[in-house]
Amino acid sequence: MAGTSGHLEAYARNIAAFAEHFRVIAYDYPGHGYTTPATADLELPDYVAHLRGLLDVLGVDRAHLSGESLGGWVAAKFAAEFPGRVGRIVLNTPGGTMATPEVMERIRTLSQAAADDPSPERIRARLEWLMADPASVTDELVDIRRTIYAQPGFATSMRHLLCLQDPEIRRRNLLTGAELAAITGPALVIWTSDDPSGPAAAGQAMAERMPDARFEVIKDAGHWPQWEQAQTFNALALEFLTGTR
């Protein structure tokens, strides 16, 4: 599961490695990718309900969850509410515990500008903000994002997706201490050396509030370690998910 206004391409460097060990279900949220555009603000209960409905339709009673940013936030909320349906969870630079005004405004500004005018320059600016190394943003990645953002109605949909960058809305959706304590299954929290969303201490504090969590830092990566340091991320996540460490 990718982040806010992110899509399946965020995990393009990971799916094949995971598929060697598991049945992999990669999906986009409502309003993201090529799904139905959002016509109302989407908050965490909407994303959790969508994930539950997806698993129901696919006949999946229990699954490991792996999510980045908003995806980690959704995975944590789901695991707290439906612990019997979750095995292990990988929370990759997860959202849900911070509400930093400067970061939220930056996300809102860059994302909406890219959706309003999906030019290569605006798309690249949005993606480079996520990375430790701007060179990680390939032309192919820009083209994929441009094609998605250029869909009719996507700019309006984006405004609904960005509601979580509003301080009041964000606060009522944040993960509570009780929810983190309710995630009783094994959890792996991954942070990075150069995450623009916040310091590694935020991820460590999150892990410390869960009963069975470990914390790891990936160097030379920003908000997308699964992209910038794919080999390291894949090895770390897979050894955790397969129970080999």
TrEMBL record:
InterPro entries: AB_hydrolase_1, AB_hydrolase_sf. Keywords: Hydrolase. GO terms for molecular function: hydrolase activity. It holds the Pfam family Abhydrolase_1. Residues 6-229 form the AB hydrolase-1 domain. This is Alpha/beta fold hydrolase. It comes from Pseudonocardia oceani. The lineage of its organism: Bacteria, Bacillati, Actinomycetota, Actinomycetes, Pseudonocardiales.
